Amino acid sequence: MNRSPLLWVPSGYFSMAMGYIMLTSVTAIMFKNLGMDNGQAAQYSSMLILAYTIKPLFAPVVEMYRTKKFFVICMQLLLGLGFGAVALVMGMPGAMAMMMVLFWIMSFIGATMDIASDGVYVTSLDSRSQSLYCGVQGLSWNIGPVVASGVLVYLSGYLHTSHGMDWLGAWRMVFIAVAVLLLAMTAWHWRVMPEGARAADTPENLGQAGFILRDAFKTFFEKRGVWTMMAFALLYRVSIGLLEKIGPFFMVDPVAKGGLGMSNELLGIVYGTYGLLAVLAGSLAGGWYLARHGLKPVLFKLCCVLNIPIATFLLMAIYQPTNLWVIGAGVVIEKFTFGFGSVGFMIYLMQQLAPGKYTTTHYAFGTGLMGLCGMLTGIVSGHLQEAMGYVNYFWLVMAATIPSFIVTWYAPFHHGEQAAPAAPVKELCESSTG
């Protein structure tokens, strides 16, 4: 029976986003609430990005066995059980070590679910349907961060302040809620999701998968100007990577430590709701601007729009405003311009880095470099902030915009601005939520 994509596309991409944001972003706030310093909290949560960064390396193996739906169902089930297991071990002796092991395993499970879910979408829908539902796909993925970074962070603070739970108890309830939600999604997708067709170029065995991967690497490094394009992919967002984890920490740290002293409830509202809506609005505006003028004439302008408004955090660190409207405006400005400027980055990867024999794989290499930048900057960001204080650290973030300007100015254009290769819209959204 052919079922409408509206039955499984929205829920599928929402589930993907929930797993990704809970593991790579929300955990940082939880670690901080449980007593970690900024350095450890940023480092541990950033390490969980690794699986999503290297997923192109094991994607061919996932394609070889059973059906794509089989992997989606299995990975969602395991991810739901994983969040339940985290809730169970919280408070036990050595709980933090056990939680990190679970999170590390779950990050690879989540990355595998991403591969399989994208595979179902690409192979179950024809090109016309993919275009028709791409807006639904992107919107559904972005509902995930609203729920994870907004609603669930708010819930943790509400349980802590209004119901007297300690932070362990509050976050245990959050993880139980996520586990139940993902298990419900598993049952739903088992019922309504299509199997996913086998792609024509799927490897038949491990040897063939290895050959394809080696050939993809070989042809990637044979591209004209590849090192400059790689530098662009790695460094365009370096300042954003330094800000990603520290921005929320700055919001919740006490005023005496240089922060703004916000509660988890307010953080959930400002960052997870207003901030994300600003990203979406900025992405739409950036896409319109790019379509109107073309990529090459505006790429450097987009880089300026992306980086210069980071100064709002420096100003907030200097003046430490208490007015929620002022704080919210600072976050909205930074997030809107981030969404606006990030569109040019992703389109550059699609149009200039990806074209060739292995378009999709080379595009994945580019997004992998983006993920590597986020992981490395996230690992060091907390330690640098603790050593420097917020004002000096945000000066450092402003200085880190300089490499972005340099690599953008010298970014090569060897291809015309042809239609971008097929790539999941949620990659654009994922880049906007860190």
TrEMBL record:
InterPro entries, sorted: AmpG_permease/AT-1, MFS, MFS_trans_sf
Cellular component, GO annotation: membrane
Compartments in which it is found: Membrane
Major location (coarse): membrane
Domain of life: Bacteria
UniProt membrane topology term: Multi-pass membrane protein
GO molecular function terms attached to this record: transmembrane transporter activity
Keywords linked to the UniProt accession: Membrane, Transmembrane, Transmembrane helix, Transport
TM segment ranges: 7-29, 41-58, 70-90, 96-117, 138-157, 169-188, 226-246, 266-291, 298-319, 325-350, 362-384, 390-411
Keyword Signal part of the UniProt annotation: no
Protein name, per record: MFS transporter
